[in-house]
Structures are given as structure tokens and as C-alpha cells.
Amino acid sequence: MKARVTVTLKNGILDPQGKAIEGALKSLGVDGIASVRQGKVFDIELAGATDKAAAEAALKDAADKLLANTVIENYAIEVKG
Amino acid sequence: MKARVTVTLKNGILDPQGKAIEGALKSLGVDGIASVRQGKVFDIELAGATDKAAAEAALKDAADKLLANTVIENYAIEVKG
In angstroms, what separates the C-alpha of A21 from chain B's closest C-alpha? Predict the structure, then answer.
């Protein structure tokens, strides 16, 4: 079973990396970019998980324990059947 | 107009960071994780873009020029209305 966990900064948290990318895109002449915020994505393969609820529980555990810093980040879990 | 660009490593490209996360999850006792691969996500706000095709063209340009290393990475563009 495959899944994707997407971790993004919460609203209001400064993102200097995103700001740098935004500046770089402007100086490269890419038009129309108003703002950029960077996040992380984890493509996870689950072994032996047969039902979606169990998979989601394991991924929530993983995200809370390691993948995301829940003080400043949000995460979204997407299990792909 | 909002958009998301997701950059992931191509198949066959080694991902030591993902391997480290996999090991860490195992030692934290999170069960059922077979493999982890890490990627990046960019949440981009487009200024003044009115049609989807123009937005996609600008994002493709941004991904090719800066966001992804197309030798070892794939990217996916998703424009949100």
C-alpha cells in the first residue's frame, strides 16, 4: 500500500527558504510568481497493511513522532488504495 | 491563483535521506513502514494569472529553471482553480 504525507509550514510561520526561492525566480525572469512556500513530501510504502484505517493510523503516528514538527507544521496524509 | 509543484526523485536514484527516515521510524517503533522516499513541495501563489494554461506554462518554466533538477528529479504541477 502506497501513501504520501505532505508537511507544510503553518500560516504565519516565516519561510525564509521560500522567500529565497521567490527572489531567485524573479531574478531568473519567471513572471507572475507572487509568493512561494516550501514544504516536504514523503512517499511511503506500507508493508502488510491491508486496511486503510490501520495504514492511516500508522502514518499519523509517523508524522506526529518524526515527519512533522507539529508546533510549526501541518501535515496531510493521503493513502493511495 | 494557487498552485502546488511536487518534486520527487526519479526511480532508481538513491535516497539516503529517505533511508535514514525509514531507519528512524523503525527505531521509534512505528510499524509497517517498508520504504520512505523524500521529496519537496512548493506552494506557489501566482499574481495576475487569469488562465490556467498561462499559469501552467509559468510553473513549468520555474520547475525547469530552478525548482527541480530534471536529471535526477521528476516534478508534477497542480493548479488549483
Answer: 8
Nearest by CB to B47, from A32, A40, A43: name it. Answer: A32
DSSP result, A30-76: -TTEEEEEEEEEEEEEESS--SHHHHHHHHHHHIIIII--TTTEEEE
pLDDT tens, residue by residue, A40-60: 999 999 987 678 998 999 999
Can you name the CATH fold of B2-80?
Mth169; Chain: A , (3.30.1280)
Hey, how many other C-beta atoms are within 10 angstroms of the C-beta on A81? 7
All structural domains of chain A with their residue ranges = 2-80
